[in-house]
Design goal:
There is one protein chain. By secondary structure, the chain is of the alpha+beta class. The protein is 22% helix and 28% strand. It is built from 8 helices and 19 strands. Strands 1, 4, 5, 6, 7, 8, 11 and 19 form an 8-stranded mixed β-sheet that branches. A 7-stranded mixed β-sheet has the order 10-12-13-14-15-9-16. The longest helix is centred in the C-terminal third of the chain and has 20 residues. The two termini are 40 Å apart.
Amino acid sequence: MSSIKITENFMMKEWIQMSAFLKECYREDHILCSETFFRWQFRVESNGEKANLICAWKEDKLLGIYGYLPLKVHWGNLEQPVQAVWTLYWMIKKEAPRGLGWLLIKKLNGMKLPLQLSVNVSEIGGPIFKALNWTIYSRVPRYICVLDNKQCLDMLCPGAKKSDLIDKHFKSTDHHPVALKHIENESDYRPTWTLYSNLAFGTVRSFDYLRWRYINHPVFKYHIALEGEPNRPAICVYRIEQAFGNYESKVGRIVDFFYPSDERGKKEGNSLLQTVVQHLQNINCSFVEFICSNSNVSQIFIDIGAKEEPIERHILPARLTPIQNVFRNQNIVFYRDKELDVPPLEKMYITKSDIDGDSPSSKLLYT
């Protein structure tokens, strides 16, 4: 591989080469082929027109990429977050020399980062990460809550039955109704992280992170609802997806939900979640989903009627634009320095929105 050059960043002035690589290795309508989305995903504007992608070049042609996003992550200590990277979009051309993929991973490992994480690792990538001693949790639980039984009956996945919906209906419990308020500026959101023990193993949800991940998203319209004081808010981030294909329906996706871990925080979190779900029902959503690893946070969702889907199948479709009855669980993998703990999955805070878990299916749908 002496003729192959490995670089730690991708310069946007070479977008033509990147665009050609992405169209060949993914597909022409893949969302990453949109330069606008690519710039957002890799935070190019704040990084000197560079994208954090390890690239393998042979002359002026790209042979492989391995993306990484530096982010602060809580890892057992809410007062001292760890500088970590989330990795994404690991792709090698078919004609590339054998072992090039390993070489890109080795290049990132050489940066001596204490923690690396990724979600939705493919069946091909899984064994490679396992061989490299990454911790792998193959399934982050998916919870569903039925808001309109008739619509959900028409959307059942193959093999699912009417009886699968019976115990998954939204039930409003006794709570103090709250007005649906949304974050307007940074003064609304200044959380004291030591109050949020459920976030002890997860990406720091700073205002800068929320602004990048949700407010400035180039495609999806996210709503960031909050309840409570700025130093201890309960937060619920959701979006409404218009499913189409063999059935058309609005579906609510809750992609982030957290609250202070004391009793007051739980009450405010419960009230906020019920208010959001009631709103989704009022606008005729068929169901709402929540993908989350943390058992304490998920319990609030269970308390209002949701249930975890079976391990081996979907009851309601996860892919909605268009509806595809494809079964696939979200997974989470990570590699950490030996001095860092290996938490059980239920103590981590991983959701659908971590890095590229909640992404548009095609750029053609949003142009």
